[in-house]
Design a protein that fits this description.
Blueprint: H1 24-33, H2 43-107, H3 110-117, H4 121-138, E1 142-147, E2 152-155, H5 173-181, E3 183-189, E4 196-206, E5 209-218, H6 221-228, E6 234-237, E7 243-246, H7 261-270, E8 306-312, E9 319-325, H8 327-454, H9 458-486, E10 494-497, H10 498-515, E11 519-523, E12 530-533, H11 535-553, E13 560-568, E14 571-578, H12 585-589, H13 606-616, E15 620-624, E16 630-636
Parallel strand pairs: 11-13
Antiparallel strand pairs: 1-2, 1-5, 3-4, 4-5, 6-7, 6-9, 8-9, 10-12, 13-14, 14-16, 15-16
Bound molecules: adenosine-5'-diphosphate.
Main location: membrane
GO molecular function: ATP binding; phosphorelay sensor kinase activity
Coiled coil: 359-414
Length: 638
Amino acid sequence: MTLCAESRTLKPAGACGFSHGGRGIPVTTPLRDRPGGQGSKARPVSWLFLGVLALAGLIGLDAAARRGAERWALSEVRVAAEAAVGLRVAMLRSEIEKQRTLPQVLAEDPGVLAALERPDEARILALDARLDVLAGATRAGAIYLLDREGMTIAASNYLTPESFVGNDYSFRPYFRRSMEVGQAEHFAFGTVSHRPGLYFSRRLEKDGQPIGVIVVKAEFDAVEEEWRRFAEPTYAADERGIVLVASEPAWRFRATVPIPEDQRAEIRASLQFGDAPLDLLPIRPAPDLPATVLTLAPPALAGQDFVEVDAPVPTTGWTLHLLAPTAPSVALATTAARSLALLLAIAGIGSVGFWVARRRRLEEEREQQALARRELEARVAERTMELSAANDRLRGEIEERRRTQVALNEMQDELVQASKLAVLGQIAASVAHEVNQPVAAIRTFAENARQFLDRGDESTARANLAIIGDLTERVGIITGELRDFARKTPPEISRVPLREVIDGARLLVGHRLRQGDIVLDVDLGPEEISVAVAPVRLEQVFVNLLQNAAEAIGERAGGRIRIEARADNGRVTVTVSDNGPGLPQEVREALFMPFVTTKSTGLGLGLVISRDIVAEFGGTFGAGEGPGAVFTLTLPRA
Ligand code: ADP
């Protein structure tokens, strides 16, 4: 017999060791130590690890659920058994109490006393019959009357083969004790009936003297029969632990605790339990369950687990034991708990799986995004490099262009100057002539002034000197103009009246026009027109045009040049026309091409440079249609 730890219950010896408890841990522990078991980098290993972990968890959960359910079911069984044991005690006690009152009643019965005092046959027979009826009615095993010597004089079973009548029960403890102290209770195995029972005995007295003993034997067949109808094996044992009443007949007169050999021999000698060997009940405490039972007989109970509860049977020294089978409740609770655990586990595994899969997906998305971002950044960096290279190239080109432009501008300036000097060569003679005239006049007026002074005509001399001053001024203006024209002038824009520019040009080419008898018509409209130009450069344009026109008119009579200007919407349109032969065809076809000239001494640059000068001011320069040559300029109005 093995006693399991924490046991208040019994279990078959072979079933000791609750096999499934705590097995989950050893399974999972090595898995935790597996290399790469927890790694999330190697994906297949990770899934395998999760799978093993889930399996281990499942096993652990199942074990825990079983253990928990078992404990819960056992406690439930115990609660039910404690209620049941109370009922069983009540049943047994009511049977005992019922039988216990009988000897008291019969001890006072006049019929019983009369039979002892006057034991004639008719009286005895009448008592026998009464006892028989009484036993039948109270379900007593037997009721019988002993005389003071212990001889049976009347018995309820007087008609049966095992009739007690005539038997000597003076050796029975209940007789001796009743005779001594008045009453006794004694459980014993019937020597004649071979049926066990509880004997209640009471002394009968006459005038204070004992005259006999009335005995009621309570048998518990009916109680045992009742108990057998329940699923829980039940038995009642006396103070020594010997089973007296049991739902399993084979357990009767077995011991719940080991009885020492000498005590056992003594009991056997007393024939209290016949020749019953008083062996131990076939019950083993369970090793790890609160209560289990191993029964050898009947075999149907062998190996089953039970919760044992006990309760004292009041008014006796007995203890009633009830063995409540655990299997149905445990099986039910275990199945329910395991199902629930399985459901929870599936839900848990599902959730974890979902969570892991979701995390994976997010990680993958993040990785893809990071990759895409890196690619994009690389492309942007590459493109930025290309762009900055292109930018550098462009900057270089812009710088180059700027330098070229500067060089071009310088060249342009040089060209303008060259063209101007070329014109200057042509106009120098006429300007010299223009100057010569006042210089000759000055000489004459000076001579005259001296003579007037000699004559004392001071006022006339003074008038002559004033004329000389005017003439000198005129010469100064002409030479000044010539000097300004010859100077290399910067193309700086300023606001200047158009008339001033045209007058300047007229001054330079005036002699040439007069030489050819050419009339210059200038019509600048009613109001003064100012333009935003570089004045000397615009003057160069007009000098060119007037010079060309004069040359084209040549010796023709009635030569006429007309300059007409009109201001309109911020622009000034100037037309320079002549009544010469007009532009030759070849010049018209290659107009504004450098070096196109019909003159033997010409450079073919005048028109080209005039157009460039006007373009510099933001104006236009072109040739129009007319009987002679027509040139049209537009200039920004100031
Ligand atoms: P150049 O005077 O040195 O020849 P230009 O560029 O000033 O150079 O003139 C180019 C040519 O255009 C002249 O050679 C001439 O044939 C023609 N031309 C210019 N102005 C006139 C004009 N008013 N009438 C006729 N032909 C003209």
